[in-house]
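User: structure tokens for this one?
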Amino acid sequence: MLVARPAMAGPYSDVASATDEDDPFDVHTEIDYELDIRRVAIKREFTGLPGLGPDDPIPVVRDLLFSGIRHTLTPRVRLSVFTDLALTFGLPIVISDKRTLEFDQRATPCVFPGGAEPATCVNRDNSTTLDDGLLPDNGYDAQDPALGFTDPADPMIFRGVGRWGLDQLHLGIQWAPMNQAESRIADGSVAGSGMPTQIAKTLIASSSEVRIETRNSQRGNPGWPRRASPKAATHVASKTYVPLL
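Assistant:
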């Protein structure tokens, strides 16, 4: 024989309430964990290919693969200020944020430049990012900035600094106009509004920060070369974090 049990409200239909007869003040706490995994193919415009006419569209070629993994732990607090009305606070703590760039070598079969067949994969010899001087020939490795990646067989060409700390402060308000505790016909809906407040500076990738000789500087060309369009640059915007002391 089955025994009926009271139904419990889910976290998205629960609100901290104050000035109730048997409960004058509420404080609700919770912790959220988020894993953000991203993998993006970066393609770039490539000009100067043989056989292209002046009116032909600019071809887009494969270049790099971006990978990013971020772990975020967010403590949250909800403070009751009136009946079915609460203020919410959240503090996202980035435990780890790592980002890399690799040559796009996903083609099957994978053919590199220099042979009799047309190249289908990217390495140091045909990467437009290296040709344009956005990265040096050995790439950039935050774990060893002076040396970079010296193994030609290694597809990785960029490894950023591992970041952690505080990113934003979340402030919000919640209101439960359809509280089931006060009305049996209420559906338990909760209305809310929030505003994330940035507390860290925005980080913008810039090749000028890499003080290693690139192909363009060796060729005496400090600007954009003729082979690629700057609007397809490998720009990745993110945020810096305030370190936890």
